[in-house]
Amino acid sequence: MPTKTGSYIAGDGEFTRDQRYIATRVTADGRDGFPVEPGRYRLVVSRACPWANRAIIVRRLLGLEDVLSMGVAGPTHDARSWTFDLDPGGRDPVLGMERLQEAYFRRFPGYERGITVPAIVEESTGRVVTNDYAQMTIDLSLEWTAFHRQGAPVLYPPDARAEIDEVNAVVFADVNNGVYRCGFAGSQAAYEDAYGRLFARLDWLSARLEGRRYLVGDTITEADVRLFTTLARFDAVYHGHFKCNREKLSEMPVLWAYARDLFQTPGFGDTTDFDHIKRHYYEVHRDINPTGIVPAGPDLAGWLTPHGREALGGRPFGDGTPPGPPSAAETVPAGHTPLGDAR
Asked: Region Disordered: what ranges (predicted)?
């Protein structure tokens, strides 16, 4: 998610996302100059951001915590950058930086595009390597295999990649980015077009998931990770703040059960911080929410209710196993999640 202040609303009607990212990749063979190495890189995220939340989930499911460290920026930012205000002294303890912007400028002085999370930063030089969030999670699955935990799931299986890519493409266009096209629309026509596409796709997803537990195959894949992070923010933010209000997620029976199933799966709910999510959207988007008041609701208890999706079969981790609990340093504060003592 980029940094920006002032107006988020598209002045010409339709919101168009800038998708020009740093295309450098961290690969097993190091062909871009950045080989996979334990302890060499730091994944910088904000728990508020759905794109960063994907990387957090995949890193945890694959068990990469000990080889790829993680820095967590605060939920809000200003025009210059995400800041490390959650850390003592307001500096990332590994990178020594106050702002993620510093890592971008160390590699690209005067970098003019968005200072976005997630970003992978080289620890020794403090230089950003990549912020290409879509490729990043695929590479964590395919390029970091030598360091996956025993029992790690296969999130991007070879025989299902074409179908995963197809599902991801339409979900991104109409849902992941679709909620932003609603919220940042600059005209009634642009909003109504985005709204129609969003709910048509959610209906399509409901029909697809009515008789199957996961989006592609019978295990959790990259496709489920990408949809989950939008669904997790739907009632808390998108329904009201972005005017995606035909129904709440909790009023869509199939998608609500599907989202709860994933939330209650290790790696999903225990990486989701509703406090950071709400603070980011409602405090930063002042042209949409001028007062900056953060809603007290919704009640999160419903995320822990039985979902009944086990009856559809499926094996969440395939032949693998669930990840262990997050470390104390990476545990979402109890007040920011309905999990509480359930973890």
From this structure: 311-343
